[in-house]
Amino acid sequence: MNYFRLTCVAAAALVLVACGGSDDPARGALIDPPAVLATLTAAQIDASTSSTGLQAITGKAKCDVKVVALNYATVGAKSGENTNASGVMLVPGGSCTTAAPLVAYAKGTDVQKPRTLANPADTETFLLAAMYAAQGYAVVATDYLGFAKSGYNFHPYLHADSEATSVIDSVRAARNAASTVGASLSGKVMFTGYSQGGHSSMAAQRAAERDYGTEFNVVAGAHLAGPYNLSGSLRIPDAIAGVQFFVPYLVTSWQKVYGGIYTDVKDVFKAPYSGYIENLLPNPTLNYATLLTTGTLPAGTPNQARDALFQSAFITGSQTSTTHPLYLAAKKNDLLGWTPKARVLLCGGAGDPTVPPAVHQSVMKADFDSRGVTNVTSVDVDAAVQATYGPGGKAPTDPTSAAFATYYGSYHGTYEPPFCHAQAKAVFDTVK
Asked: Minimal CA–CA distance to 5: which of 101, 92, 90, 73?
């Protein structure tokens, strides 16, 4: 399969992936030379963070930030698959000349197949630049399998093992690119991610510490608003905000990875969605808004959207049966039960309607506590979200009001992330 252009060296490296050891240098090999897209000056970053109010959270920029596009070798979701992923490296420069720790970031759920974080105008990329790179950290962030330049034929959504390899190999790619783009790396590595990325970054920290302890000096992990307890999330009676995006993404992804989630797509999804849902996400042209406005996915309240999209027997089975194939797949991708060696931060907001901390963060922390793990802290940023974005400094309570819809519609995707990133950086600052 002709996934991408290969130099002779990269092609040879990819051939070695299937038979290489745990520290195989082929994974993370650069497919293309790293491309410097732009340099954001400290003054430009400050102007933007000041105008948006973000500077109160990020602080003023100390460094210029070089934005670098990466395209690197990695592996697929199944054994023996060799492929590629793209991403971005953010390199601190200007007055920042000391060796930088490397923050490996995993992005939140993305439905737009062409989107890459190697874009200085991308809001998620800019947040990483302002929060970390402009403060002296190098950053690498993967686009994941199946996005942007990746030739992989689907995105293994919330599949812990391939999320981990995509992130870990992005660290290798950043190291391989460092000398070319003028980056001086200290050797310290921190993992962080938001939403899906919180699941990905935790999976990556787990794998890095377990499998590559001599290769990576992992000093901390900060996992933000992640769905760590996927099997438990299937049991809640009411649908989460965004159910019409996240759950079909998960179901069709795990069907492609494992098989056996269903034998007939019509047993899971109602018409007309069953006719195209398996290859809908990520989408080459539609985003969250247009997936709804075009009627491609159902709108309405979370429960209304769920009931319009899914066959009730499938949902009931996944909620009640311990042998249901979706539940069994979810158990494989739960992150409960591991013991971190480096310090860990869990962060979320209690009002999050998409990844409720009561289902994920609190359960994850309780799991750590039950096993005597003492290097994990858990932070709730809901008070800050309410004070900053709630009408009158409080969360709106009238579910029929426009303020309610705006507040909770923006909570997970817009309001919560900067506050959790600030908590992550505070932890990283103690070990950098």
From this structure: 73
> Domain of 214?
8-229+336-431
Residue 11 scores a pLDDT above 90: no
Beta strand spans in 229-341 (E) = none
My answer on whether 287 and 148 are in the same domain is no
Q: Do the domain assignments include residue 1?
A: no
User: 286 and 152 in one domain?
Assistant: no
Which of left, alpha, beta for 130 (phi over 0: left; psi -120 to 50: alpha)? alpha
Task: Look at residue 277 and tell me whether its pLDDT is greater than 80.
Answer: yes
Calpha distance 139→116 (Å, rounded): 15
- pLDDT of 8 higher than 80: no
- Considering the domain architecture, whether residues 363 and 306 belong to the same structural domain is answered as no
What is the arithmetic mean of pLDDT over 40-66?
Answer: 97
* Helical segments of 310-411, H only: 312-320, 325-333, 361-370, 382-389, 402-410
Q: What's the pLDDT tens digit per position in 264-276?
A: 999 999 999 999 9
| Coil, strand or helix at 386 | helix
Average pLDDT (291-308) is 98
